[in-house]
Design goal:
With 336 residues, the chain is mainly alpha-helical. The chain is built from 14 helices and no strands.
């Protein structure tokens, strides 16, 4: 009863924060919009007749804010699922090298002068290819409980080795890339929302995985708290771990192919929500999803306004915020 009341207070507040962050991102920029301008521009967009400058600006900012929100949400949700899978609070969406596969695909396309739409497709294909490779290599280990059987360290080690191979390919491409392509490749690796486009696929993937996560939140709790006895409590641990891996990989592929390798969102947001709200995944999953989206929207707003008209990669802002926040979280956990 207490947990339900707590969720009834926290989740609406986080939903309001999410809407406020998107609204603020639409208002703030090198060209400021007032509430009256925003209302008129929204009316023009609703009728599909964006004739004014305010409507054009709102269209661009709203599209970017929504893309940032779904990217941050998927990264945070992926971080929650990866930490549950590996039973390691230091795990994040990139720990198994899936983002490395996306980077190899995207940078290869940029290097060989592929079209813009091909970059996102190649990044998604590279991430999925690495995820399938990891799944094939660690299939037997994923069927274990991940606690006393030692399967989680083996899976983690496999991911680290695959990530190292992807890192070598990335270094090779950066070393031979011409100067005209090098800047774009570096920006993509850092993580940037400036050239993103609104797409429905990340929303569909995010909604589907969120539904799965909430449906299995109780089983994730049991596995996290009683890993050795979860099977006797009615949880198919092997299938749950396989699904967690595949869902986390799909979320990571979607986020990285949309905005590049934006760091720290999938690490600090689950930590912060778990520290503030507790380890119950029935509350942790929606809280981290909403908080991750709001965090990235606000970070992107800072990235495009702090040195306007020049824009910074949003990955720089998330790293500058993420490092001290994570160190503070570690300090607080040590005191506890």
């Amino acid at each position: 009863m207490l947990a339900a009341r707590r969720a009834g207070l926290v989740l609406p507040a986080l939903l309001v924060l999410s809407l406020f962050s998107i609204l603020l991102a639409c208002l703030v920029g090198s060209i400021s919009l007032g509430f009256s301008d925003l209302a008129q521009a929204a009316l023009e967009l609703w009728h599909a007749h964006p004739s004014s400058l305010a409507a054009s600006v709102l269209d661009l900012r709203l599209s970017r804010a929504l893309t940032g929100f779904i990217t941050g949400s998927t990264l945070a949700l992926s971080g929650v699922m990866m930490q549950a899978l590996l039973r390691n609070p230091l795990a994040d969406p990139y720990v198994l090298g899936i983002s490395g596969g996306a980077s190899v695909g995207a940078l290869a396309t940029i290097l060989f002068y592929g079209a813009f739409w091909m970059v996102d497709l190649a990044a998604f294909a590279g991430a999925v290819a690495v995820a399938l490779l990891l799944f094939a290599l660690a299939y037997r280990d994923l069927r274990g409980s991940g606690s006393s059987d030692g399967s989680a360290p083996i899976l983690l080690l496999t991911g680290v080795i695959v990530a190292s191979g992807c890192g070598a390919l990335i270094t090779l491409m950066l070393s031979i890339a011409p100067d005209s392509r090098l800047r774009g490749m570096v920006f993509w690796m850092i993580g940037d929302l400036s050239n993103t486009q609104s797409r429905y696929l990340p929303w569909l993937i995010g909604a589907a995985v969120f539904w799965f996560a909430m449906r299995n939140a109780r089983a994730i709790n049991i596995t996290a708290m009683h890993a050795d006895n979860a099977s006797s409590l009615g949880v198919n641990v092997g299938r749950l771990r396989q699904c967690l891996f595949l869902c986390s990989a799909l979320l990571t592929a979607s986020a990285v192919s949309t905005a590049g390798s934006i760091g720290f969102v999938g690490l600090i947001i689950p930590h912060a929500c778990r520290f503030a709200l507790g380890p119950d995944h029935r509350l942790l999953i929606p809280a981290a999803t909403l908080t991750g989206g709001s965090f990235l929207v606000l970070a992107d707003m800072i990235a495009r306004t702090v040195v306007a008209p020049q824009q910074l990669p949003v990955g720089v802002i998330t790293a500058m915020i993420g490092v001290p926040v994570f160190l503070l979280q570690l300090h607080q956990l040590r005191r506890r």
